[in-house]
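Researcher: Here's a chain I'd like modeled. Treat it as a single chain, no partners, no ligands.
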Amino acid sequence: MKAHRPTKRRPRVVGVIASLADLEPALRMRRPPDLFELRLDRLANMADRLEKVLPKLHTPVIITARHPREGGARKLRLRQRRDLLARFLNRGDYMDVELRSAAALRSLLMLAEKKKIRRIISFHNFKSTPSAQILAAKAREARSHGANIFKVATRTDTPMELGRLLDFITTSRVDIPLAVMGIGKLGAISRVLLARAGSVLIYASLGSVTDVEGQLSLEQLRALGFGP
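Model: Modeled as a single isolated chain. Structure tokens:
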């Protein structure tokens, strides 16, 4: 396989909609990010309202219903997450499914491919960062499930952990676009460094408060030169 090379294009900025407080300003935003991510696990109690207002979001959308062991809210079971993704599938331009769920959601991934909805397959580790070799193996596994992008978000509390992510994105022999970011004490600097090293996506909160340690706001990213 070819080695992954840093992209010459700027990373696309993803604004995360995880609550009503995120949704309302997103609907009024005159200068939106490149993409919005709908955290359906966090928005499950307002799914009816979400369906009604989604046509007003004139920006491509990533849909995801996160697994509880990878940061998902409400301890949703597989069937519940599958139903949410299926319900909003036609509204999405991308669908994000965790690598651990890819086999169980194979039929939904195949349907997304048939509908020309791009697939992000993701891996989250909130305790540590595996080696570049382990992450590369997971990237190849994601590709075998039909991923168009492999997303990695791992703990970066130390320079060694951040170094593993930089090693992964710059030297791994994987033939798939990578979206790579850190969480934790070095999360903010990791996102900037990894975006400049070739990450195709960089995620942002839509307000000044986020429950993801190290995630920058949309305004902060724009001040650093990212985003439209």
